[in-house]
Amino acid sequence: MYNMSNLTRLKTIEANAPAAMQAFSAFDKAAMADGAIPAKYKELMALAVAFTTQCPYCIEIHAGKARKAGAIDPEIAEAVTVAAALRAGAAVTHGTHAFPSMA
After folding, report:
1. DSSP H helical segments within 33-72, as ranges?
2. What is the pLDDT of residue 103?
3. Which domains does the chain show, CATH number per domain?
4. What pTM, to 2 d.p., does this model score?
5. How many other CB atoms are there within 10 angstroms of residue 30's CB atom?
6. How far is it, in rounded angstroms, from Cα 95 to Cα 32?
7. What is the per-residue pLDDT for 33?
8. CA distances from residue 36 to 1, 27, 32, 39, 49 in whole angstroms, order as listed
9. In whole angstroms, what is the distance from residue 58 CA to residue 55 CA?
């Protein structure tokens, strides 16, 4: 199912929903551009999100962009651990819903 060549099919989506796809593309470009947060850090954040959403397309794309923006392996490895900590933390905090209220 996962194959980077699938992304060529984005043209089909754009052909059938051009306004929405153009708006998405513009938003994505603006969100990831250098700003108050440098692009390198935005790419590391994107990687952490991709790890938690487990999107192989995003992982591959943003790993490349992060490296191109100057990220090095130790930074990417720390993004992995941040994502893991957040994912684990969410499991722990959501676990509280399995117990009756103490009120």
Report:
1. 39-53, 56-68
2. 66
3. 1-32 (no CATH), 36-103 (1.20.1290.10)
4. 0.89
5. 9
6. 34
7. 97
8. 37, 16, 11, 9, 19
9. 5
